[in-house]
Amino acid sequence: MFSKMLKNDWVLLFSTLLLMAIGLVVLYSISVAMPQDGGLSIFWRQIIFAAVGIAAMIFFSLTNYQIFKLRSSLIYFATLAALVLVLVFGTTIRGTSGWIDFGFFNVQLVEVAKLSMIIFLASFISQKKMELGETGRLVASIILCGIMIILVVKQPDFGSAMVLVGIWLGMTIISGVSAKKMAIIALAGVIIAVLGWFQLRPYQKDRIFSLVKFGVVDPQGSGYNVIQSIIAVGSGGFSGKGIGHGSQSQLNFLPEKHTDFIFASIAEELGLLGSFFVIGLYGIIFYRIRKIALSAPDNFGYLIVVGIMCMLLVQILENIGMNIGIMPVAGIPLPLLSYGGSSLVVVLASIGILNNIYSKKETIIQQE
């Protein structure tokens, strides 16, 4: 067991833990200004989630990732069943019925669904690439992944649905699709986007209008969050106001400052330097993920790495983008930084899977 742990990608691991530590520091400063309901603060809850997540990361780093290939269909159908059940029995939080209430904590199943789709799609593509051909594989993946995406849209959680679409698109492109078929996919995407517009709820349309008009559609309503976020980011200046001294976050002007808009809290308290440091750590993580992909022992492992990279990339771009007013507000957490156990545990479990794939590269070297 100890020898396996030594094979981890320590640069990836250190960058991950450092990002999580930054998130905890900022969450601590935010929790001081938040009203307490008598229970644990968001800081101590996140500490517990981090401990569970680290345990999950260690477990998956020691578990041979090939086992997921054998269980991919079971994982897929179990996830579908869970998403159906949560639509009926789920707890509604912030307008989304995608949560299961366990009393002390809530689990957001769509976070698990992201990793489930990655595993299933990696297995499907690697096994069916020769059997179905390019067109058959493409159509089948659209149908199978589309069912999962529709169930998430029904919650409704368009932000997470967008992440699932990004995962499917990234893994599909990497698996090898002709330019002609990609053009057809792009055209289909435009048509679906147009039709999907009419399925959006009024508040979701307002968020998009606020983006197009830079938050001035309704500064006291749909545009309020973005305006306050931009103020927080700008007020941080070069070096920030210091931990616990951010006026927007400490005086509760900034909504969802511990979840959706934690990057604005970081920019306000740590400034441009702190923001670039966070983005730099993400850059290191992506660099190491790319190295792991290039050294993956097989196509299944390679596709899992690509899927995890897509999952993280879409979430980071969307979250930071909505914090600075260039993306619509979609309620997507910032990986390793935002408060929330479901996201944190799944991301850390994903890092564990990456480390397990990384540890197998020596097998290739020995065989050669």
Task: Please describe what this structure looks like.
The protein has helices at residues 2-6, 10-33, 42-62, 66-70, 72-89, 109-153, 158-176, 179-197, 202-212, 224-235, 247-250, 262-294, 299-323, 341-359, 361-367; strands at 91-93, 96-101, 106-108. The protein is globular, with a radius of gyration of 21 Å. The longest helix has 45 residues, at 109-153. It has 15 helices and three strands. It has one domain. It has 368 residues and is mainly alpha-helical. A three-stranded antiparallel sheet has the order 1-2-3. A hairpin with a 4-residue loop joins strand 2 (96-101) and strand 3 (106-108).
Poorly predicted runs are 364-368
Helix/strand structural class = mainly alpha
How much helix, percentage-wise, in residues?
A: over 70%
Largest sheet: 3 strands, antiparallel
Radius of gyration: 21 Å
Q: What letter string, H or E per element, gives the SSE order? A: HHHHHEEEHHHHHHHHHH
Query: What is the mean predicted local confidence, pLDDT?
Result: 84
Strand proportion, as a percent range, falls in under 5%
- Record field, number of beta strands: 3
Cα(first) to Cα(last) distance is 25 Å
